[in-house]
Design goal:
With 394 residues, this protein is α/β, with parallel strands linked by helices. A 7-stranded parallel sheet has the order 3-4-2-5-6-1-7, with helices on both faces. Strands 10-11-9-12-13-8-14 form a 7-stranded parallel sheet, sandwiched between helices. The protein binds adenosine monophosphate (AMP).
């Protein structure tokens, strides 16, 4: 199946062939025709499925009708949880729209607002924004929503996890009644459903493309059980023992991230980190250096790494196991893209046992364990019960 058979015209398909998109992904095949036909959507799809193009491409097609923009007006709004994702989505829009006259802008906090205001003066076709900065701009009357045709809530679950619900509600109240609504979320929790009920038409189409880990046999998963106080030594050992050349290392807290970077440095391993405590400029530089291969080991909190697309990522390390089984799936799905082989390694302490049970239950199998003589474990992590149902969790 080709992109043109989904209803996209030459100005868009030409841009796609420039960047070697030959075949639409599953979510693109399902979503593009529905969005073109004007439906509202609630879609369960995560990073790595091609979800961004699945809403950007049909929106570009619909907006590419020669309509003249008025000052401070936007025609489509894409809300994202993080600055990094906003930038990444905007970069995709710019690639896909290069043969059209459509304009786009990424707008996020942590940087000077004046330059962003200037860019809004003549209006923008597609604005990609984080909720807080968008509301600030709307309060300052730097933009108006009266000509808005479509809104996308991207990574809705993560926006809710990050506490953006009030901001999102305030934004939705400001939007025109007549509009197309698209919601994308890795998981459709009860909270996401409640948001969809408020923001999206009742007759929205529902789609789901879960990235089935079983369909990614190219990702090798293994874990090492460890006592908390020997974690950084174990990580250094693994890096050296296996001569790892690259890893994206997930950690729970920003303080933990900075500490781990210095612990690795003491053992002669150069790493850097991204987390919400670093400035936007620094985060971007570090990420680009990692993508370019100039930094081999990137330590990141889950939030900072959310939605970031790193091609050719060979290895993901869960220095801290995530709380949610779905997060584990997303994290490991960042490696082994496009058929390449990938590796996902987790360090698991006794405290993580419940999380491990939830993850292995979701996977439907136990993750292979490796043990190392130099790292005997005092607090043993039992073998999981595979039908574990987490309680009191969303
Ligand atoms: P996303 O899930 O939107 O973060 O996209 C994941 C990655 O897949 C990005 O690097 C996209 O550029 C890439 N991608 C999306 N759609 C296609 C496609 N149809 N063919 C090839 N690569 C794609």
């Amino acid at each position: 199946m080709s992109f043109s058979s989904l209803g996209l015209s030459d100005s868009i398909t030409k841009a796609l062939s420039d960047i070697d998109y030959t075949t639409p992904t599953a979510i693109q095949k399902k979503a593009i025709p529905l969005v073109l036909a004007g439906h509202d959507l609630v879609a369960a799809a995560q990073t790595g499925t091609g979800k961004t193009a699945s809403f950007v491409l049909p929106l570009l097609e619909k907006l590419n009708n020669g309509k003249v923009l008025r000052g401070k007006r936007i025609r489509a709004l894409i809300l994202t949880p993080t600055r990094e994702l906003a930038i990444q989505v905007d970069e995709s829009i710019k690639k896909y729209s290069q043969y059209t006259d459509l304009s786009s802008l990424a707008m996020y906090g942590g940087v000077d607002a004046d330059a962003q205001k200037q860019q809004l003066i003549w209006g923008v076709d597609i604005l990609v924004a984080t909720p807080g900065r968008l509301l600030d701009m709307a309060h300052q009357r730097a933009l108006h929503f009266d000509e808005l045709e479509a809104v996308v809530l991207d990574e809705a679950d993560r926006m809710l996890d990050m506490g953006f619900i009030d901001d999102i509600n305030k934004i939705i109240e400001r939007l025109p009644q007549q509009r197309q609504n698209l919601l994308f979320s890795a998981t459709i929790s009860n909270d996401v459903r409640a948001l969809a009920k408020r923001a999206i038409n009742d007759n929205a189409k529902e789609l789901s493309v879960t990235s089935d880990v079983a369909s990614k046999p190219n990702i090798t998963q293994w874990l090492v059980t460890v006592d908390k106080d020997t974690k950084s030594a174990l990580l250094s050992f693994l890096i050296k023992e296996y001569e790892w050349e690259q890893a994206l290392i997930f950690i729970e807290t920003k303080h933990g991230a900075a500490k781990l970077v210095s612990q690795l440095a003491k053992r002669g391993i150069v790493a850097d980190c991204i987390h919400s405590g670093r400035t936007q400029a620094v985060r971007e530089t570090v990420l680009n250096e990692f993508k370019a291969g100039n930094i081999s080991f990137l330590v990141s909190t889950g939030v900072a790494a959310r939605g970031i697309d790193i091609g050719n990522l060979t290895r993901v390390v869960n220095y801290d196991l995530p709380d949610q089984a779905d997060d584990y799936i997303h994290r490991i799905g960042r490696t082994g893209r496009a058929g390449a082989s990938g590796e996902a390694v987790s360090l698991v302490a006794k405290d993580n046992f419940r999380n491990l049970c939830a993850i292995e239950s979701k996977l439907g199998h136990i993750i292979e364990r490796k043990a190392f003589d130099d790292f005997p474990v005092k607090k043993v992590v039992p073998i999981s019960i595979l039908n574990y149902q987490p309680k009191n969790r969303r």
